[in-house]
Amino acid sequence: MKKFCGFWNYMLGWTCMLLATTQPGSTQDANGLTPVSCGIEKECTPRKLCDNSNKVIRDGRALVDFRSIESPRNGREKCGIFEECCSVNDKRTAPIVNEKYVPGLCGARNKKGVSITIENAQHGESQFAEFPWMVAIQSRATAPLNSYASVGGGSLLSPHVVLSAAHIFKNLHAKDLRVRAGEWDTKSENEELRHQDREVADLIIHEKFNDLNGIYDTALLILHTPFQLDWHIGTICLPSPEASFESSRCTVTGWGKRSSNDKDYPNILKNIELPFVERNKCENQLRYNTRLGRYFELHESFVCAGGERDRDACFGDGGAPLVCPMTNGSTRYQLVGMVSWGLDCGTENVPGVYTNVQEMIPWIMEHLKLHSITI
């Protein structure tokens, strides 16, 4: 594993993460991964291929219960969170998802995940492929060589268009960036469906973006080559001009901190359900419950969500999507906001502030038209 450090913006936050890379001269298995020894005739193996007796299993849907992690079985302390220390005698290539992918509609959430299911999640961990439109945006790191630092999140609008927040691209250019789709566990290469990386051809920052107050905090990334859509890689819907989100329970996703006091960043994509907060209520809460003061005016390029204790986007979530159901109870979602800024994280009666995607749609469509792109 190679270590890299990067700047994930949510009102300024540092993170240090790991990228798995193959070392020169190492031996790879059929999946292109380097086996890790955890004992005599044993190797770290994806949990879905290992039963309680540490023998490789060949069938069944993996059920991951996070309550069991604190009491590791023999060998697990040497392996990743979704691996077991298994006998290699009958080890074989991991089975791939059996169902053939059929392109579906935008905003389709896989609420029970794909292939792997987390049960009894303690910290808002998402299911694998639950939010297929979520992408990680990375920039080239100066060291080590060929490593990338994560700078924030984004949303896939089409196979070759990503929408994110402008503030995470300070001093960065298109040639410095790549986008990763299909990511879930940043410390594992054992997901059944592998992530995909794409280089950025063009970075378009909203011309009215102000890096002092964050208004018009919007950026489009046009990719060199499109992503190949799959169960774990899909697109999100843009809202209609007349859509209303009042009284909606929405969801924000990202790999940012769970609270401002956390030392570490979660490796598994988290999701937090939040209430959409009406504009006047948000403005008043920010005026009278924070240091912004009674003269603060919430710009039209922002929307708000949250205000519940310990439930909020936080450091490292910049640009990540805030999505709301298309209708109450719907399994399809629309992109309502992008994580922009906040005051601390998870303070009661202090909502987080997001870029107003509905307000940005004319700008988005104008620039996609200039690139001859339709979504």
TrEMBL record:
GO terms for biological process: proteolysis. GO terms for molecular function: serine-type endopeptidase activity. InterPro entries: Peptidase_S1_PA (IPR009003), Peptidase_S1_PA_chymotrypsin (IPR043504), Peptidase_S1A (IPR001314), PPAF-2-like_Clip (IPR041515), Ser/Thr_Proteases_Immune/Dev (IPR051487), Trypsin_dom (IPR001254). GO terms for cellular component: extracellular region. Residues 118-369 form the Peptidase S1 domain. Residues 1-27 form the signal peptide. Keywords: Disulfide bond, Secreted, Signal. The keyword 4Fe-4S does not apply. Gene3D superfamilies: Trypsin-like serine proteases. It is found in: Secreted. It comes from the Eukaryota. The keyword Disulfide bond applies. Pfam families: CLIP_1, Trypsin. Its main location: secreted. PANTHER family: TRYPTASE-RELATED (PTHR24256). Belongs to the peptidase S1 family. CLIP subfamily. This is Phenoloxidase-activating factor 2.
